[in-house]
User: What shape does this take?
Amino acid sequence: MKILIIGGGGREHAIAWKIHNDDPKTQIFAIPGNGGMEAIASCVPLNINDHQALLGFAIAHDVDLTLVGGEEPLSKGLVDLFASNGLKAFGPTKKAAQIESSKRFAKDLMRKYGIPTASYEVFSEYASALAYVRKQSLPIVIKADGLAAGKGVVIATDYSMAEAACKTLLASHLCIVIEEYLRGIEFSLMAFVNGTTIVPMAIAQDYKRVGNGGKGPNTGGMGAYSPVPSISRTTVSLSMEKVMKPITIALVNEGCPFVGVLYAGFMKTATGIKVIEFNARFGDPETEVVLARMKSNLIDTILKVLNHESVSIRNSHDAAVGVVLASKGYPYEYKKGMIVSIPKITNGVCFHMGTKLADETYISSGGRVLIVVAKEATLKLARRKAYESIISVANEHLFYRDDIALLND
Ligand code: AMP
Ligand code: GLY
Assistant: This one.
């Protein structure tokens, strides 16, 4: 079997690692891939926005199944192009990917189908946004409609910050969503979906802010862990019944059935679970810890879901903790091209997020460089092992958060 993975971060490395572990005979291509993936996949330096080149590659290499890591190719219709050329890709069409690419689309769909989420209004003019903001209590959340690579969400703690956010986001986007600030415990639930066939994975929690204690700007994610002891089985079942199943039905009813991995970011609030966001793909870095625990064969699961067969996922009882090592300065300016040592870890794996292999040496090529995932009987032990490993390779050019999976137990 030949699998093509589109992307080159920690998530794509984890997907390739899982496929390789499940069956080392599977031939894996990655576009563009990264330094760490080269040991298990053929990495091909094509531009992921050049969809014709991706299509040409998949046809020329007889690819059986394509998995798309990031949102950009999905929102630009890569899966539509592959499907119209008779190629199998596990991901949503451009229309279904709006669940992520348009906050307005996602919020309006949730309102229409009674799916619990923060109350909100949509604005395309500054004056009316401002008038609305002034009537709301603080903090208030302002979100750009459209993909913004994590930079489109502002949690304003005073009115001048809220006004500035409305102005900035409206200058670069057609409209903004202004929504109620939710308090509670966040968790992420991903599921393999084909229309109304839906197979959930284990839940995880990620750490979006750059600094300890949730301080500083948002990032692509500084770490994650799974399972999440503060979220009960009942809460997960409720999330399936009140959100995941209804949203797949909603997308079918709206004429854009979802195929691929559907991700929901939840807040467990005092008044029940509420959706913070949907993503149309595997989450990063949640995937790195969730796949580390997944015992079922990944490609078999996807093929069964594509055939609408009923299947459930078996997960290890072990806990997985992933800690990210990032370039100093990230998520703002940082240097690339630093030599990176790869840590050793027993009962775990180091996924590359932004490295290149140059003359048998790994050099950094991105803001997030590595994620070390430790898998042990308890979260506490996994956390200790992940940090021992991270500390062994951190240096003056690289940093990490100290509080990943630091739970009050
Ligand atoms: P999003 O891109 O919508 O996931 O937002 C990024 C992060 O901002 C989320 O993971 C939350 O931590 C936070 N956030 C977004 N919306 C809200 C909200 N309504 N209430 C509280 N926090 C939020
Ligand atoms: N971890 C959140 C995301 O993948 O967008």
User: Anything to note?
Assistant: The chain has a mean pLDDT of 96. Residues 206, 221, 279, 283-284, 286 surround glycine (ligand 2) (CB under 6 Å). The chain has four domains: 2-91, 119-180, 185-306, 319-399. The radius of gyration is 21 Å.
